UniProtKB/TrEMBL annotation:
Designated name of the protein: gamma-glutamyl-gamma-aminobutyrate hydrolase
Natural source organism: Acidihalobacter prosperus
Name of one Pfam family that matches: Peptidase_C26
Reaction catalyzed: 4-(gamma-L-glutamylamino)butanoate + H2O = 4-aminobutanoate + L-glutamate
Entries under PANTHER family matching the protein: GLUTAMINE AMIDOTRANSFERASE PB2B2.05-RELATED
Function according to Swiss-Prot or TrEMBL: Involved in the breakdown of putrescine via hydrolysis of the gamma-glutamyl linkage of gamma-glutamyl-gamma-aminobutyrate.
SUPFAM superfamilies noted in UniProt: Class I glutamine amidotransferase-like
UniProt pathway annotation: Amine and polyamine degradation; putrescine degradation; 4-aminobutanoate from putrescine: step 4/4
GO molecular function, one term: gamma-glutamyl-gamma-aminobutyrate hydrolase activity
GO biological process: polyamine catabolic process
A GO cellular component entry from the record: cytosol
CDD domains per the UniProt record, alphabetical: GATase1_2
InterPro entries with a match to the protein in the record: Class_I_gatase-like, Peptidase_C26, PuuD-like
Amino acid sequence: MTDRKPLIAIPADARMLGAHLFHAAAEKYLRAVTEVVQGVPVIIPAMAQWLSCDDVLDRVDGILLPGSPSNIEPHHYNGSPSAEGTLHDPARDALSLPLIQAALARGTPLFAICRGLQEMNVALGGSLHQRVHELPGMQDHREDPEQPLDIQYGPAHEVEIAPGGLLADLLDQPRILVNSLHWQGINRLAPGARAEAVADDGLVEAFAVPSAPGFNLAVQWHPEWNATANPVSTKLFETFGDACRARMRSGA
Ligand SMILES: N[C@@H](CCC(=O)NCCCC(=O)O)C(=O)O
């Protein structure tokens, strides 16, 4: 008998489409889960007022925290108010931030991408820079929205892999080339988090929480974009998938 496929929860963005509020996730994340993780993606509506963390975690084998154009509300990390016009998604904040803490405590495998990395850092007590490109000495980590998507999600800069960590173990190379589509970034890395990759301007671009009982990894770049065409991205999603399958088989 073959195993069932693991169920992978993807917290939704809450977005107005016309006159109605939708709970949505971009197809590229669903595709990475179906195609590379070999799992079944389940979009979790951003309705934390009616769904507890246990309602979700009792049923799923892993969590994928996707990127989003929206920013975390800065009061979650004692940040100064956002610039006027900043897109927020308080419903997603309310779902994701407690879910991250609960998933890490339970050992549910967790893979966090872009906004997901920022959420994981904030959920664990870290803080964010709101406009990395305006800081002296920092690179511009934003995409050019005028370019076609393949260029926006194309290779942008290298990151240095921290020796002795999870990524060093998985990838066995000192530097990798990543894409870059973000304004915000880690300011204070959360207590208990270990930097796994750092850009040349010093920005932490990946981290893990080694003391958590399950697989967990957060990356600032977008491995879900054409994941099967990039060996590093494939490896990250396959490793996450293996952790989800192991969790599922353990019956935890
Ligand atoms: N808004 C934050 C997070 C950036 C991010 O997650 N971008 C992804 C955009 C859509 C997607 O590709 O899923 C920031 O700018 O830092």
